[in-house]
Every structure is written in structure tokens, then in C-alpha cells.
Design goal:
The protein has one domain (about 1-25, about 65-125): Rossmann fold (3-Layer(aba) Sandwich), CATH 3.40.50. Helix content is about 50%, strand content about 10%. It contains five helices and four strands. It has helices spanning about 5-10, 25-40, 45-60, 65-85, 90-100, and strands at about 1-5, 20-25, 105-110, 125. Strand 1 (about 1-5), helix 1 and strand 2 form a beta-alpha-beta unit. Helix 4 packs across helix 5 (about 90-100). The two termini are about 15 Å apart.
Length: about 130
């Protein structure tokens, strides 16, 4: 099975065992990680975050934010709004979920609550 790891999984200090799934990272996660490097409050954190980002860049070609993801985002955003009213998840989380949906992947996360209301649209798995 194909699976997208969201940013909470990537930055986890205790990486989970994810079995035999084909694992992917999204361009949205890479964007969040780039921002994290630039927003680090000190040089040590910045260096640690940059090392992590450099390793991920070498390991993964990120799934792009393309027209298919845009369509999936509209669907996800509407579904969450219908079920939950104003959505608790931020747009970056929903774009990551949309990337998973558009690419036929399940979504691995440490923050399942961010994806409430998407159970019928994309498989969200707590890790």
C-alpha cells in the first residue's frame, strides 16, 4: 500500500515503524520543513532542522502540489466544512491529505484529530 507521511511523522523524535508500505512525502511537508529551518530560534535548532531536511531531500522526491491535488483539496475542504463547520485543521494539513487522496495513498499522522471528518474520503492512520 502507498502511504503519505505527514509532517508530524517526519519531525517525530521517535520514528514509528511503518511496515512495508511505499512511503511518500509531500511538497507541502517540504515547504513546512523549509519554513521550520528559517524560523528556528537558535543556530543549534536551525542546524538540526537543516540536517533533517537535507536527509529527507536525498531520500524522497516529494509528491507535487498539482491540479489533481487542487481538485482533491476542494473536495476535502468541502467535506470537512459540511461535517464539522469551520474546520479545525489548517490548510497545510488539508493539502497534505489532498495529496494523499490524489495519489491513492493512505495518510500516516501523529495528529489524527487534525483530519476529523475525512474518514470517508481518505484513510487516516495514527502512528
Amino acid at each position: 500500500m502507498k502511504a503519505v507521511m505527514d509532517t508530524s511523522v517526519i519531525v517525530s523524535a521517535d520514528p514509528p515503524s511503518l511496515g512495508d508500505d511505499d512511503l511518500f512525502v509531500t511538497a507541502v511537508t517540504f515547504a513546512e520543513l523549509h519554513a521550520g529551518v528559517l524560523l528556528a530560534s537558535n543556530d543549534a535548532d536551525r542546524a538540526r532542522r537543516l540536517r533533517r531536511l537535507t536527509k529527507l531531500t536525498a531520500l524522497y522526491d516529494p509528491l507535487p502540489l498539482d491540479a489533481g491535488v487542487a481538485i482533491a483539496y476542494g473536495r476535502i475542504n468541502a467535506e470537512v466544512a459540511r461535517r464539522n463547520g469551520p474546520r479545525p485543521a489548517g490548510p497545510m494539513d488539508l493539502l497534505i491529505a489532498a495529496t494523499a487522496l490524489s495519489n491513492g495513498c493512505r495518510l500516516y499522522t501523529r495528529k489524527v484529530g487534525e483530519f476529523d471528518g475525512l474518514e470517508d474520503v481518505v484513510e487516516v492512520v495514527r502512528v
